[in-house]
Amino acid sequence: MGNTKKQNLSPIDRKIRWRNWLSLTGFTLFIFAAIFFWLKLKNQPLDNDIAGGVQIPLRKVLNANEKVFSKTFSKQNLAKAYPKSAAAKVVRLNGALGLMTDLDDKNWRLNVVRAKGDTLKLTLADLQKLPKTQVIFNFKCIEGWSQISDWAGVRFSDFIKAYHLDKLTDKKYIGLVTPDGEYYVGIDMDSAMQPQTILCYEMNGKPLPLNQGYPLRLIIPVKYGIKSLKRIGVLSFSEERPPDYWFERGYDYYAGL
């Protein structure tokens, strides 16, 4: 009787049945292949066993992405700017790493390491004497949220010129570290010199709150929020990648948008 039913199928019905069978078989093989490669990848050695890191094949992909994006990056490509009216009145937080210790704001200094044994120490007042730049953009967090927010401070490139640090921009990277050393990031020099990158000391026209990095933080619109380090203690220049907190924990070093 089963054979009779098959014989009674029209050519179209047979074609549909055949395609359904192929689809089901292909989907099943895909699932098994995905599980196989996931298990194989999961068991690959990590690139950094101490801090957690990420499997070496994934790190190679992330590094390849960085090479592609860094070569196509242009300092003239600006993040979209918004009017002040669009900025959030209550600005969302994106972490408190580096802010857990009490701040001695009277003795706080921005320590700019020009060379070993040569550190420029600047107060907030020193930076506030330089031209102020306002940046209103859509701040994006790796947690999946974004928010238009209003920031102001000294443009990083203006800071470089004001303190005659131009030669140091021949280095490939800058490194930023909080005063307690708990949070640290590395940023490629081209992104740091992008005209919207600021050493920020104001939010919504007022001094930064403590939980937003008072007295000074980085705002870099061409990167995800993990790069906008709060409460800068040390700024340095390097030819090699400086340590980066989230890179050591498996994230993309470049973190570009």
Automatic annotation (TrEMBL):
Coiled-coil ranges per the record?
none
* Parts of the chain that traverse the membrane: 21-39
Task: Specify the Oxidoreductase molybdopterin-binding domain's residue ranges.
Answer: 102-246
Fetch the Pfam families from UniProt: Oxidored_molyb (PF00174)
Keywords, in A-Z order: Membrane, Transmembrane, Transmembrane helix
Which branch of life, at top level?
A: Bacteria
Membrane found in the keyword field? yes
User: What is the protein named?
Assistant: Molybdopterin-dependent oxidoreductase
- Organism, per UniProt? Pedobacter gandavensis
Write the lineage as a comma-separated list: Bacteria, Pseudomonadati, Bacteroidota, Sphingobacteriia, Sphingobacteriales
